[in-house]
């Protein structure tokens, strides 16, 4: 049942004609009312709130352009690269469709990263929106899988060797790793079998999963209502009709609002598609215009830019890094023992846990811990609702230095991405290691630092300036 504090309390009126005929057989009008005209969103949503709707638009662009690409693409190791060239050179408007799809892949990650950052600074993962955040993280994971599977399909040099490197990472898992890598590839090397199964996942399985998760994300959002820059729950202040005083109907107010953002986005998107589709080799790597050659390794293998922050964390995890983590475990265990010196049961648990983790770090190869670090850098987002102990949601009412922390985190993420693209070097390793420690420190220390400082009082109602 829809939340009456966010949706109109009255049933949709009966309509005649075609709409009435449909309503008797399908709840079109009630769905329209519940999720658009009588769904009340906070009236002070700002620039940061464009990126949620833009994510849906880019998903639609990718699905539609992908359908047209599949009509001419050949998922065959001997024909894949040639079929992409055929699309680019001989299919009417094929070059445009391919560039829309490749640009859309990067645009998808750009808007999703910005959407996630907005959730981070405004506390959109806090109660009662934990499930919305979890669905969003699942969407992010699915999007990464979709991009990875699609990355192999052009069958260029970087596609082939990038897939080879990433799949080989699974072989670092103790005991089951080598067999798992073979199972993923379907062969001992990346081959035609790998291409076919990646094609199936990219075209059918993951898109269906994405659509389901996006639908669940929106349903969960409309159940509890949108967050806002103040972090104030608008349903706590309603008028006599049960309508939030600080809310406005999503349609037409925010549909028009989002249309403006969409217009700006499409202008930028089209400018990239028509004038810089390769974007200096970041959106389409130069090596991917060379057919895949299993006998010739590119001098520098790096994934596409949206994976590079996590790839940088992987590369920064060497045996020296593991030694640092071992030191961190020792210090953390000693601190936990000191904090629980009057609680023998908990102290023993921390001692045993710390000892086991220290033993695991010392006995398992650093390559495995690199994979764990890379995966953990993504998975840790799922735990944000329980890591953040701040008494307020929004960055607006947190101490000023909290803004510096979030800004540093964003800069740190960009720096990780930059050095993930660069060839390995001592400087790149040192910077990536520092950024990796800062990245995980942001999350692991959040239960501590998020409570510190002088917090501003949160208003009872939204702060809003007409514009």
From TrEMBL:
It is a multi-pass membrane protein. Heme b b566 binds at residues 115, 217. It comes from the Bacteria. The keyword Flavoprotein does not apply. Binds 2 heme groups non-covalently. Heme b b562 binds at residues 101, 202. Its cofactor is heme; heme b. InterPro entries: Cyt_b/b6_C (IPR005798), Cyt_b/b6_C_sf (IPR036150), Cyt_b/b6_N (IPR005797), Cytb/b6-like_sf (IPR027387), Cytochrome_b (IPR030689), Cytochrome_b_N_euk/bac (IPR048259), Di-haem_cyt_TM (IPR016174). Component of the ubiquinol-cytochrome c reductase complex (complex III or cytochrome b-c1 complex), which is a respiratory chain that generates an electrochemical potential coupled to ATP synthesis. The main subunits of complex b-c1 are: cytochrome b, cytochrome c1 and the Rieske protein. This is Cytochrome b. It comes from Thiomonas arsenitoxydans (strain DSM 22701 / CIP 110005 / 3As). The lineage of its organism: Bacteria, Pseudomonadati, Pseudomonadota, Betaproteobacteria, Burkholderiales.
């Amino acid at each position: 049942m829809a939340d009456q504090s966010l949706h109109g309390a009255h049933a949709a009126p009966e309509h005649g004609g075609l709409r009435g005929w449909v309503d008797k057989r399908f709840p079109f009008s009630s769905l329209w009312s519940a999720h658009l005209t009588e769904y009340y969103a906070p009236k002070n949503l700002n620039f940061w709130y464009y990126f949620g709707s833009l994510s849906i638009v880019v998903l639609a662009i990718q699905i539609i352009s992908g359908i047209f690409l599949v009509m001419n693409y050949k998922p065959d190791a001997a024909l894949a690269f040639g079929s992409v060239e055929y699309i680019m050179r001989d299919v009417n408007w094929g070059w445009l469709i391919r560039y829309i799809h490749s640009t859309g892949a990067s645009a998808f990650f750009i808007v999703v990263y910005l959407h996630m950052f907005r959730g981070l600074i405004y506390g959109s993962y806090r109660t009662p929106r934990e499930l919305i955040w979890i669905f969003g993280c699942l969407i992010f994971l699915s999007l990464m899988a979709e991009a990875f599977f699609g990355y192999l399909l052009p069958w260029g040099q970087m596609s082939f060797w990038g897939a080879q490197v990433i799949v080989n990472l699974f072989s670092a898992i103790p005991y089951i790793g080598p067999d798992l890598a073979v199972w993923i590839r379907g062969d001992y090397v990346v081959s035609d079998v790998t291409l076919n199964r990646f094609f199936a996942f990219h075209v059918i399985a993951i898109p269906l999963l994405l659509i389901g998760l996006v639908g669940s994300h929106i349903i969960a959002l409309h159940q509890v209502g949108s967050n806002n820059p103040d972090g104030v729950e608008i349903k706590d202040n309603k008028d006599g009709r049960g309508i939030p005083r600080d809310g406005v109907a999503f349609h037409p107010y925010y549909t028009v609002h989002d249309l403006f953002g969409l217009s700006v986005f499409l202008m930028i998107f089209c400018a990239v598609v028509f004038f810089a589709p390769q974007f200096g080799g970041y959106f389409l790597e130069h090596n991917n215009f060379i057919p895949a050659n299993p006998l010739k390794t590119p001098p520098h293998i790096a994934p596409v830019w949206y994976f590079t922050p996590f790839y940088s964390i992987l590369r920064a995890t060497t045996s020296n890094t593991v030694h640092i983590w071992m030191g961190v475990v020792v210090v953390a265990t000693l601190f936990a023992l000191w904090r629980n010196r009057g609680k023998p049961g908990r102290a023993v648990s921390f001692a045993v846990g710390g000892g086991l983790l220290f033993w695991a770090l010392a006995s398992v190869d650093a390559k495995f811990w690199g994979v764990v670090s890379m995966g953990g850098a993504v998975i840790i987002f799922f735990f944000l609702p329980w890591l953040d102990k701040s008494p307020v949601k929004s960055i607006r009412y947190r101490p000023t230095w909290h803004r510096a922390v979030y800004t540093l985190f964003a800069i740190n993420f960009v720096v990780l991405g930059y050095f993930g693209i660069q060839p390995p070097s001592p400087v790149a390793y040192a910077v990536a290691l520092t950024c990796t420690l800062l990245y995980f420190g942001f999350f692991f220390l959040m239960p501590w630092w998020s409570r510190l400082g002088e917090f501003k009082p949160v208003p009872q109602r939204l702060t809003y300036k007409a514009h």
